[in-house]
Amino acid sequence: MKAIAGLGNPGAEYAETPHNLGFMAADVLCERLGAGPWKQEKRFNALIAKTTRNGETLWLLKPQTYMNASGDSVAPFLRYYGGQPRDLLVLSDDCDLPPGRIRVRPSGGPGGHNGLKSLIASLGTDAFARVRIGAGREPGEHRALVDFVLHRFTAQELETARTAAQDAADAALCWLDHGIAEAQNRHNAARTETTR
User: Fold this and answer.
1) pLDDT tens track for 165-185
2) Domain limits at 12?
3) What is the pTM (predicted TM-score) of this model?
4) What is the CATH number of the domain that holds 62?
């Protein structure tokens, strides 16, 4: 099996904010794969969708625990269905990346991201793939980080975010079909070149 978890905060007040870029990318992926509709799974406090890809079961998750407890949803889900951390891809925002950029990584620390920190603690390892979606603050941005990641996108920011969510979904599909190294080669390089 494979599992892809998009991270974010539940509730309408958090929709279309930088911290919910993982949810946005998961929604794009769910639609592209025809895996919907999302269903509430109370045991794991998550919205889930199920499909198959390359002959394997593929689960999509959106934890409903709030960001800083994402691991309390994803880790038990993965264990219940017999998945290992190597079977997991996480979609999350990243304030160190410029808006619109994505970065595919095979593993790594949380980088100050509370959702990734929770996942690493719950899984007992940082050896899971992730697609980081740029939510970086522009020069001159004076809001505190917590206020920035929870602010509602402007129309222009939302357009950039939607494009990045599409790119993140592309990278997730590449991970499924070709593995992490190919996803890094295609999507990290592609985004670097297009932003020069």
Assistant:
1) 999 999 999 999 999 999 999
2) 2-194
3) 0.94
4) 3.40.50.1470
